[in-house]
Give the backbone structure.
Amino acid sequence: MKNTILTLLSACMIAQSSCAKDRPDLAALLLWPAAGAFVFTAPEIPGSAEARDRIASAIASARTRIVMYCYDLDEAEILSALVEARARGVKVEITGSPDQTYAEAFAAGLAIQIRPRSGLQHAKVLLIDDSVFITGTGNFSESDLFHNHNAFYFYTLSRQTMRAIEDSLQREAQDAPIVRGLPFESMFLVSPARGRLIQSILVESVLNARTSVRYLIYSHSDPVLTDALYAAAARGVLVEGVYDQGSLGPESEGRALSDSLGILPGMIYEDGNRSVFEKHGVLHGGKLHHKTMIVDDSLVLTGSYNYSMNARDTNQEIFKSIQDPMA
């Protein structure tokens, strides 16, 4: 298992760079399973539905209770699986974001509790029967499951750990506990209660990096992290970032970092995903939706948490620290 997760994530970063001249075999890189727990969406491969199918199958196997935290929920088979679960007596509890309409979910007859706070409900979490934990960078949507670059994580956990995760989500704005002891030496945190700690973990991990910091990010507006990345490069650490296309405008932190690196070891890339579809006259998809950093090929920092003040202070977000136990 040594570095299996890290190799997968690293390969995914290389594959998604629009600057790569010779693209690797995306089927092998993006769909190679890591102990059955990690699944990457693959927009370049039409019909690739592994992540969607595993989520729908997990819902279909539910016996007593499903708890879902979602920002976007419109994928047809997942909606159908939720409706069928409720029809056979499974208790279905869904928490959504105040800025979303959830038209498809409401049309299917599902009830959604809206987060009663300012900021987004941006977590992507599915808890099933106090044993199955599904999370990652992607929403439960057609865009994120088929047209955006994302990673989904599938764990089987103890009842005690599952209850600790749910407790942390419910106490997201006050004293949400840190959940430890997940597979792959993982640690689970929720913002805004732990937002400043999440920011500190990111910054300190970069400042303590010895050889490399590589990351994929949808949105980056945290100047503190930018300064840490520059400081790491200035002392010889390789810094490589891949950003969603269009996010490297004049005001972006990614652009500022790219402009300042100069001859320092590092490079900032723009994602090359062009998998889009039209819905209600609007183009969707075509995004790099990851929020994932790899430090020294031994530590993965990932979740729904973008590198922003909103993610730190107001949004409900999840964040996972995964340590390679063999490093």
